[in-house]
Amino acid sequence: MTLITASELMTMFAQGTSCPSILLLLLSSLTFLIHSKPCNAAIDRHSIVSRYNPSRNASSMTTPMQIGNGFFAFGADVTGLQTFQPFAIMSSWGWKNDSLPSGKTMEDVENYHGVSWLNHGRPVEYDFGSNDPELEQWLTANPNRVNLGRIGFLFRDGEGQVLDVTESDLTEIKQYLDLWTGKMSSSFVLDGQVVKVNVTCAQESDTVAVSVQSALLAAGRIGFFLDFPWNDGSKKFSAPFVGSFNLTSNHTTALSTFSMDSGRGDIKAQIIHRLVNNAFLTSLGGDDFAITRDTPHTHRYTILSNSSGGSDSFAFTATFTPEQNPPSTIPSAADVEDSSLRAWQDYWTGSGFVDVFTGSTDARADELQRRIILSRYLMRVNEAGDSPPQESGLVNDGWYGKFHMEMFFWHSAHWALWSNWDILSRSAPSTYSRFLPSSIHRAQVQQGFASGARWPKMTDPTTPGRSSPGQINNLLIWEQPHPLMFAMYELRSVSGLGDDGGEKREEVLQKWSSIVRETANWMASFAWFNSSTGVYDLGPPMYVVSEDTSPNDTVNPSFELAYWKLGLGFAETWVEELGEEVPQVWKDVREGLAKLPLEQIDNETVYRVYEGLEDDFWTDPAYTNDHPALVGLHGWLPPTEDVDLEIAKTTAEKVWGSWNISNCWGWDFPMLAMSAARNNETSKAIEWLLHPLFQFDDVGMPIGGVRVPTPYFPGSGSLLYSIAMMAEGWDGSEGLAPGFPKGWNVQVEGMSKAI
């Protein structure tokens, strides 16, 4: 789908584009608008997006400028490459295992068993606390995500000797990212000569294209280097850079070159990079070049143009793959640039859009719009693959590069509200389908629950779904209802589609059916019937959202109780839609769950974090110092059975005044904003979204803050989810942009309401 603006239409006429082609684009635009939400006039999307094209004149020490396709990303310093700063080339598929601890075998890994804790008198085995901490740490750190390499400029003198050029030797530096096309451009002057470079990323393959123009090329004074780092799981966080380039004896590389008649298509050279038992392939093509290894003891290679006429331009492409999936050919730089342009234009024109800038009188609208546009770009670059993203996307590594299933919602639920089902369907429900067998085994075989699937917390796509050891990793539970939310959003997306709606609805119901059933089965099994109180309890042992309570003391936490009721209700609806009988145990648990715990403070009734929590909770920094999930009771979550909305509002206001906000981070602020919006405190909602501690840097990277390194992409995903909800509304909301106060002119196209 394509939207065409008036300015683009005039340009097409000026360029001589045929009338039938223009008519086809206009009809396509009209079709999209008919199926979008009504608005006063079509938003000039190109103008809004281009307004926030980022630029730099010096490299950042913490974040790159990025291009990518959701599965693969290339981070650059100010030269457009990785010349002075070793930012990463990362992927959703690039994983490796370190060598096992001395004396250990894969049989030991398969036979790993953690400690057993009593769960209401019954021993339950978890993946932590074993008598082999060394093996346990290996399981936590493996597999780990790999930096695939580094590409940079090589500067030489007139005699061909390599110069020690630093960024300070360059002048007139300009770097620019065209968000509309995904093209990154840099220019600078060295020794009085201008160097211009364009870098783009293919959308159908994990290929980077580099095109350079300079008189220094014709003089043989510019080349390029490729370097490959050692990667391992020795660090929980590898930021801002990933891997070590000086541990050359730990790994190997080997170069192969090919002639035109070798049957390798346009591939001119390949470098195989081996790390322990994993290997990755870099395939090179483009204009004629020579490639050599700098020394036998390093993994650095030099590329020099072979232009016989002393050309001042040169282009090459690099495709990255696992060793077992070598490419049969490699696209040209022009093909890569065209791929990028088409995909990004389709992305910007073919899905939802929110304009909070045009016509708004609030001076903060410009900054909020900047965050929206740059977050939309970076999420498409970093988080549009077939597995849940890690917290830092494809920029650097956190938690060894693994992802966290409780964060899957914040990373990816926004795609549903922005009508990006082509992207969300890559990872949901497929991730849950892949993880279903191991999750059923965890719940029923390892832990002895009666039925269902217990989803992992910290995991990876290669095992698949093996739980990383650790108390929090094994005792957190708020990730469990997430698939029910994803499923319900997809079911809503196919409602009202006319003649095709019934067929598509049945297709969605069936493809999520097993996931919905096994999720609800375990949620019902986990709830324990307390015969002394006559209700079903959640916990112990368990960790709440904030991860800061004692797991063996935590019982009936407010947020988890509400989410359990909501999720089980969704599961019941799902089975009813299939025309099947709802399991009685689901109903019994949903209707019989313990009431949300209350307390009286300052003559007001508020919800407690969990039942039995100390009376001085609100003044004890040990409990008011992390994710304030109490505000999610009516904000992130919709009105839910047994949640009193007045008490929820009073509780949220108590959080606003009592919580240690200085220790909040990432998605905390959009969650606070959603609570304010649903409670008709719209000015407060804007304040939370633009809070001084909720920051995005000059290229839109979400700052990690005091708790985690930058970037922390749950902040971006939750921002986009909250913006969609505040702009398009939620079930039961009234009027246009119900989450925005006066002074804001909000235009919306192609969005969906939040639950």
Automatic annotation (TrEMBL):
Alphabetical list of SUPFAM superfamilies matching this protein: Six-hairpin glycosidases
Record keyword Transferase present: no
Sorted UniProt keywords: Signal
Entry's Gene Ontology molecular function annotations: catalytic activity
Signal sequence region: 1-41
One GO-annotated biological process of the protein: carbohydrate metabolic process
Top-level lineage group: Eukaryota
Keyword Transmembrane helix applies: no
Protein name per Swiss-Prot or TrEMBL: Six-hairpin glycosidase-like protein
Species assigned in the record: Tetrapyrgos nigripes
Organism phylogeny: Eukaryota, Fungi, Dikarya, Basidiomycota, Agaricomycotina
